[in-house]
């Protein structure tokens, strides 16, 4: 009996390991707020991922399922730590609104967000195309680690993408974020952080009062 399972007519590659370029695309889409894409979006995402290696619709479906589970587990860890974490002193609660958040779409034209000047579009033949500048993800030297950093939020090691972060999508609530020095991390009216978090730094997440 073959090891592969099926979801509908699509084979599940049980040992599918996404390439760095595919992980970047998947994480960008997830962090944009599309955490449970419908079937038609799953197909579009799969078509894009196929430019960088073999992948099926079911692989995309299960990646998002597993990623949601990890995100919920991380939220529980962070929220549990809030009870034991004192608020930093000298807090500036002002929230500047000058930043326009990046656009995340997987449709006829789209932009893959933070840290990339690259864009996704549909060519005449109906397939998704990918174009970019010096940091285009079609570079053979691209590594997953260059697009994901690790920070400590209320003492919990957390992986985040470089660039603006959607606070509500990531933490599941209305929170303020502060650096361990007590300086507030600025966010705009849409809940996106204005600046990237810094790799290895410690931050405190507190409920907005």
UniProtKB/TrEMBL annotation:
Q: Which InterPro entries match?
A: HD, Homeodomain-like_sf, WOX11-like
Taken from the record, one Pfam family name reads Homeodomain
Occurrences of domain Homeobox (ranges): 9-74
Q: Which residues form a coiled coil?
A: none
- Tell me what this protein is called: Protein WUSCHEL
GO-annotated molecular function = DNA binding
Q: Where in the cell is it found?
A: Nucleus
Superkingdom per UniProt? Eukaryota
Q: Which PROSITE patterns match?
A: HOMEOBOX_2
- Residues crossing the lipid bilayer are none
Keywords of the record, alphabetical order, are: Developmental protein, Differentiation, DNA-binding, Flowering, Homeobox, Nucleus, Transcription, Transcription regulation
- What does the similarity note say? Belongs to the WUS homeobox family.
Name the major location. Answer: nucleus
Q: Name one GO biological process term.
A: flower development
DNA-binding residues: 11-75
Its GO CC terms? nucleus
């Amino acid at each position: 009996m073959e090891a592969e399972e099926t979801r509908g007519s699509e084979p599940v590659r049980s040992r599918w390991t996404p390439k760095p370029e595919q992980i970047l695309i998947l994480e960008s889409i997830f962090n944009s707020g599309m955490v449970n894409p419908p079937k038609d979006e799953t197909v579009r995402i799969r078509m894009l991922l196929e430019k960088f290696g073999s992948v099926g619709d079911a692989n995309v479906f299960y990646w998002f399922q597993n990623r949601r589970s990890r995100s919920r587990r991380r939220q529980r860890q962070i929220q549990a730590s809030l009870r034991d974490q004192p608020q930093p002193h000298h807090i500036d609660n002002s929230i500047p609104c000058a930043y326009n958040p990046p656009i995340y779409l997987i449709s006829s034209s789209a932009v893959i967000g933070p840290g990339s000047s690259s864009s996704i579009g549909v060519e005449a033949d109906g397939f998704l195309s990918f174009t970019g500048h010096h940091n285009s993800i079609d570079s053979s030297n691209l590594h997953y680690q260059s697009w994901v950093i690790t920070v400590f939020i209320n003492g919990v090691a957390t992986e985040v993408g470089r660039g603006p972060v959607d606070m509500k999508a990531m933490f599941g609530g209305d929170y303020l974020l502060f650096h361990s020095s007590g300086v507030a991390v600025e966010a705009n009216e849409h809940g996106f952080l204005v600046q990237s978090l810094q790799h290895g730094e410690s931050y405190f997440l507190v409920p907005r009062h």
